[in-house]
Amino acid sequence: MSVTRRKALGLLMGGGAAAATTALMGRSLSPFEEKPLPQGPAPSVFAPKPLPFDPTKLKGISERLIVSHHDNNYAGAVKNLNGVRAELAKASKDTPGFLVGGLRAKELVYANSMTLHEAYFGNLGGDGKADGPITKALATTWGSLGTWEQTMRALGMSLAGGSGWAILDLHLPSGELRLSWAGDHSQTLASSLPLLVMDMYEHAYQMDYGAAAAKYIEAFLQNVNWDEVNRRFERGQKALAAFK
């Protein structure tokens, strides 16, 4: 069976890595099984982390939504990451470069999805009352805490109806606090530590708010766990010293 490079890539990026592999080789065995490269450590196998808060206690975000988000979107990313890494561990010197590249692209997407989802769930479950060292740093950087919040809301709304993340992060090379736009799980600021992560994919709010993203952003801010944000900020200060 003749399979073009374009068709194989389409199968791969559409989630059909196994189908693309089979089509390329014309048989059911993986091409990674024949001449394996010298192997490094076995890839880590990740497991979804449980929600760090009682999902019935959030204000304005339903238990049904948050559990579905966690059990389907987040857990699905973890499962897919493990699958892609297992395939990459079988790569041989004869594995087509574009197939390896496609798997690496998927690995990046799923790894970032896992990381950002864990940060997102981790900074929920609080009372939304900003306090601690991070608030002073935000006020210093943006002129006031209120100005930072307005800017954060605007960043979130810029992603409304689409897909992406609004992230407050600490940029380690410069030591600056920044608000970063991240799309498709694969576009994030290099060498940055996420401090506060807001998921703006529609799956994060559609079940409760439909297309009313502004209402979701309001609910998100009412549930921020600022103790966790401060903990990340403190870790970031230590990382800054080691980064220089």
Note the main attributes of this structure.
single chain, 244 residues, mainly alpha, minor pseudopilin epsh fold, three-stranded antiparallel sheet, globular, disordered N terminus
Protein architecture, described:
The chain is mostly helical. It has two domains: 9-28 and 57-122, no CATH class; 133-243, minor pseudopilin epsh fold. The chain is 52% helix and 9% strand. It is built from nine helices and three strands; from the N terminus they run H-H-H-H-H-H-E-E-E-H-H-H. A three-stranded antiparallel sheet has the order 2-1-3. The chain is globular and about 55 Å long. Mean pLDDT is 87; it is low at 1-29.
Offer a concise description of the structure:
The protein is mainly alpha-helical and 244 residues long.
